[in-house]
Write a structure and sequence with these properties.
single chain; about 290 residues; alpha/beta; Rossmann fold; about 45% helix; globular
Length: about 290
């Protein structure tokens, strides 16, 4: 009887040891994680993060593009996308929030392409578990402009989502569309110390000099049947009739995968985060992976 009891205890002990060691081993192969990134654009370092989905992947990946100056970072959306099996990458444009270099709208467009190239690099994509053929762009406000510009300028991008996105060159003036708006945005730009080398004068000068390039409607033909979701907020911060509806119309001429949604909320969708996240996640899952 004592022999049998000892044998049973030994079997139970071995089973417990096997179970306790196996579970961490499975989890450690590719758990969800967060990794700091340093991405170099024309010699300037931009800080970033990747929220890595669990599993070996490779995973579809969304690049999160912040606005002007970038107070709303949409990191709750990044977490939700990671839970749904997406990687989510966040970074600061050159000259923004401690990134090296000086900020500019054209420079920010270039920075988006730099981050795409970084993620599509064979070594980086393997290390970060990124599927380089399934990269999408999600941006808020000015970041919405960057998301649409990013897909129009790069045929490898699957999809773009713009949250109350600006068209920085709309009708040749963008945010500086009339005298009142020009003064408001110029004065605001003068306060943005987190954008290195920036001012209201520089903002107005850049839009004036590069209005044609910054007008997204002038590039709409390059969408070529790819998917874009435009989500507007019912506010005057980004006037829908100036920035969003003309872009929606222009893109629809070249793709039947353009969708538009209006949410009655403020510019950051402060009272509708679940709705915003759900809409973005559904669109990405249905069209972009």
């Amino acid at each position: 009887m004592a022999y049998r009891l000892s044998l049973c205890l030994l079997v139970l002990l071995l089973s417990a040891c096997t179970s306790s060691s196996a579970a961490p081993l499975r989890a450690s192969t590719a758990p969800a994680s967060i990794t700091e990134l340093t991405i170099v654009a024309n010699g300037s370092r931009m800080p970033g993060l990747i929220y890595q989905a669990a599993g070996q992947g490779p995973h579809p990946t969304a690049i999160m593009l912040h606005g002007y100056p970038g107070n709303e970072k949409n990191l709750d959306l990044a977490q939700a996308l990671r839970k749904a099996g997406w990687n989510a990458v966040f970074f600061n444009y050159r000259g923004a929030w401690g990134a090296e270099g000086e900020f500019s709208f054209i420079g920010a467009e270039q920075d988006v392409q730099t981050v795409i190239n970084y993620l599509q690099n064979t070594d980086n994509s393997a290390h970060l578990r990124v599927d380089p053929s399934q990269i999408s762009l999600v941006g808020h406000s000015m970041g919405g402009h960057m998301a649409v510009a990013g897909i129009l300028d790069n045929p490898s991008i699957k999809c773009a989502v713009a949250h109350d996105g600006a068209n920085m060159g709309a009708r040749g003036k963008g945010l500086f569309s009339d005298e009142q708006s020009s003064k408001l945005w110029s004065d605001y730009s003068d306060t943005l110390f987190m954008l290195k080398g920036w001012s209201g004068k520089k903002a107005l000068t850049e839009i004036s000099m590069h209005a044609n390039k910054l007008d997204l409607t002038s590039r709409a033909a390059t969408i070529k049947q790819r998917a874009v979701h435009l989500i507007a907020a019912d506010t005057d911060v980004i006037p829908i009739d100036l920035h969003i509806l003309p872009l929606n119309q222009a893109l629809r001429k070249y793709s039947d995968k353009i969708t538009y949604e209006l949410i009655d909320d403020d510019h950051s969708f402060s009272n509708s985060r679940d709705k915003l996240i759900g809409s973005t996640r559904r669109f990405l899952n249905q069209n972009c992976r």
